[in-house]
Amino acid sequence: MSIKEQLEIIKRGTVEIIEEQQLKEKLESSIKKKSPLIVKAGFDPSAPDIHLGHTVLLRKMRHFQGLGHKVIFLIGDYTATIGDPSGASKTRPRLAKDEVLENAATYKRQISKVLDIEKLELRFNSEWLEKLNASEIGELMSKYSVMRMLERDDFSKRYKQHKPINMLEFLYPLLQGYDSVALKADVELGGNDQKFNLLVGRDIQGSYGQSPQVIITMPLLEGTDGIQKMSKSFGNYIGITESAMNMFGKIMSISDRLMWKYYELLTDISIKEISRMKKEAHPKDAKVRLAKEIVTTYHSKSEAEKAGKEFERVFKNKGVPKDIPVYEIKPGRHNIDGTIWILFLLTDSGLTSSNSEARRLIQQGGVTIDGAKACNPDEQIKPKDGMIVKAGKRGFRKISTKYAP
C-alpha cells in the first residue's frame, strides 16, 4: 500500500500520533528498504479477562499486521511485579510471579480472537529486564529526572497531598521505556491514559542512540453505562468470551450516541458507510447491525443471527429465553432451614460479579424471582426447583435444588 493508504488505516480511531511526520518518514523508509516497522504494545497481565475495551488497542495492532508490519505483543511479566502507577491514588499491590504467568497464559488464549497469532511475536519483558545489573539500572535511572517524573498528573497529585510514592513506581515507566530500547521499536501503541509512559520510552530511546519511536494513543472505550470506561470493576463491560446472547443484549443496551463510537473502534465498516448510516438508518436497525457485526467476530454469523432473533423474542415481546442456563445451588450455601442469602444466589450463579453489585442491582429494582421484584438485599429466600431468577435486562438463571437440604 501507498503511505497515504497506510495512514488512512493507521489513523482510524486514534487520539494522537506523536509525531505524524516522523511516522510518514518511517513508512517511507519501510517501503524503500522493504523492511517492516517494529510495532510494540505492552500489556500488564494483572487483569487477563479481555473485554471490548481492550480490543480497541488489539484491533489497531491487527491493522498493522494487515499492513505487513512486525507486531509485538509484549507481556509485562517483569514490570507487573512492580505495578503500573498510572491513574493510581496510592501504591498498587505487587503480584506474585506465578500469578503473573498464569494471567499471561490466559491473555494468550484470548487474543487469538482478534490477532493473527501466526504473524504475532509474543515476548515477555523479563527476557531483558531480569538481566539488568545494578550498574545498568543506575545508568537507566540517570536518563530521567525526578522533576520530569513529577510532571505526571497522578504523581503530582499524590506528592501535593503528601501521599506516599515509592521508588519502584518511579522505576516502572523507565523499565517500560527500556522495553522499547530492547525491542528497537519504531512504533508503540497504548491507551491515551498511558501517554506519559510512552513518551518516556521515546525519550529513553534517544538517550540510547536509537531513533525515537512514534507514539499512537487510542481512546478509552466507555462501557454499557456510557459514562465510565469499560471495566469489570464498574460492571459495565462486554467480555469477548461471553455468550453470543449476552454480548448481543449488552450491545443493544448502549446509547445511540455511543453506538457510533463502537462502530468506528470495534468494526471494520468503512467511515464512509458509518457516516451514511448516521444520516439514513434508523438507530435501532443500526444497533442491531452493530451487535451482529461484533457477535460474528467473536462467535459466528449463525450465532449472531440466532442471538438477534432471540433478543427480539425476549425483549421485544417481554418473554423468557428458551434456553436458560441452569444453576445448581452449591452444597454448603444453604442455611440450616434450607434458605439462601439472595446475594449468594446472584453471585454464585454468575448473574452478578460480586455481592456489592448484587446488592446495588436489587436496590435499583433490577432483580426478579419468578416475576416478583426482589426488594430486600438481606433477604433469605427459599429456593424452588425450576425457579427463574432475572438480574438486569439480560441475565436469567433457572434454579436447581439438587443439593437442597
Give a brief description.
The chain has 405 residues and is α/β, with parallel strands linked by helices. It contains 17 helices and 13 strands. The chain has helices spanning 3-11, 20-33, 52-66, 97-111, 126-129, 134-141, 146-149, 153-160, 167-183, 195-207, 244-252, 256-266, 271-280, 283-298, 301-316, 342-348, 355-363; strands at 16-18, 38-43, 70-75, 120-124, 187-191, 214-218, 326-328, 340-341, 367-369, 372-373, 380-381, 388-391, 395-400.
The structure class reads alpha/beta
The side-by-side strand order for the widest beta sheet comes to: 1-6-5-2-3-4
> Average pLDDT across residues?
86
CATH level 1 name of the largest domain: Alpha Beta
Distance between the termini: 68 Å
- In percent, how helical is the residue content? 40-55%
Unreliable stretches:
87-91
Bin the strand percentage. 5-15%
Please write the string of helix (H) and strand (E) elements.
Answer: HEHEHEHEHHHHHEHEHHHHHEEHHEEEEE
Report the CATH architecture of the largest domain.
3-Layer(aba) Sandwich
Number of contiguous helices: 17
Number of domains: 3
Could you please say which CATH topology of the largest domain applies here? Rossmann fold
| Rg calculated over all Cα atoms | 24 Å
Give the tally of β-strands: 13
Shape: globular
Give a quick account of the main beta sheet: strands, pairing sense, barrel closure. Answer: 6 strands, mixed
CATH-assigned homologous superfamily of the largest domain? HUPs
